[in-house]
Amino acid sequence: MATSTLADCVPLDLFGLTCVRGLPVDEVLSRLQAASQAPYPAFTVEEAIRHFGHGFEAPAVRLCESRGWVYLLDVEAHGRLLQTPVLTRLSVGTEAVSVWKLLDSTTQIAHARGGELLARFDAWTFEPAEGDDPSRLNGALTEVGFFLEENWESEEWSAPAMSLLVLEQEFGLVLPPEIAHGPLPAVSLKHLQGCRRTAGV
């Protein structure tokens, strides 16, 4: 079974990862209405939790650039960036993908391009992704074995890890784990609290 380097960048039971192609970090932060927080302090995950606080009411992200993508790593997986209004805003003039896993909950993936949501996948349903154009995401999900019953019955199968492998293979995402676990610039997303706490349309 193929393995994902991205899976070494996050705790697989609880994470959120959103990636935006080809935009400067400052533009991404502007779209998140977080640019006013500059200069951005650099924190490890533990330091970010201590600084921003715990739980859904204190959402924050750490961010970096790698091979043409901006990576936004949730601090304590809040999933705010997976939500359609936020992800589509990030994708205007480019594309963005997001994956979210919350403890015992399901794994969800969304793909947006040009300000439109193309596909949304919920691993809990065992059904293909839905949306305006889910073919690319469904092709990638199929390629790593998401819709094979024997995989779901295998103890070695991990939907979160395979979701990350989908993004890694289909979108060319490369993030060295040592960067992900080191200090990274971080911002609060408290101003996005009008969005629902769980992912939805």
Provide key terms for this protein.
alpha+beta, 201 residues, single chain, eight-stranded antiparallel β-sheet, 7 helices, 27% helix, globular, disordered C terminus
Describe the structure.
By secondary structure, the chain is α+β, with helices and mostly antiparallel strands. Helices cover 27% and strands 25% of the residues. An eight-stranded antiparallel beta sheet has the order 2-8-3-4-1-5-6-7, with helices on both faces. Helix 4 crosses helix 6. The radius of gyration is 16 Å and the shape is globular.
The class by helix and strand makeup works out as: alpha+beta
Strand order in the sheet with the most strands? 2-8-3-4-1-5-6-7
Number of strands: 8
Shape designation: globular
Number of helices: 7
Beta-strand portion reads 25-35%
Summarize the structure.
The chain is α+β, with helices and mostly antiparallel strands. It has helices at 25-31, 45-52, 84-90, 135-143, 149-153, 159-171, 177-181, and strands spanning 14-21, 42-43, 60-66, 69-75, 95-102, 107-113, 116-122, 184-188. Helix 4 (135-143) packs across helix 6 (159-171).
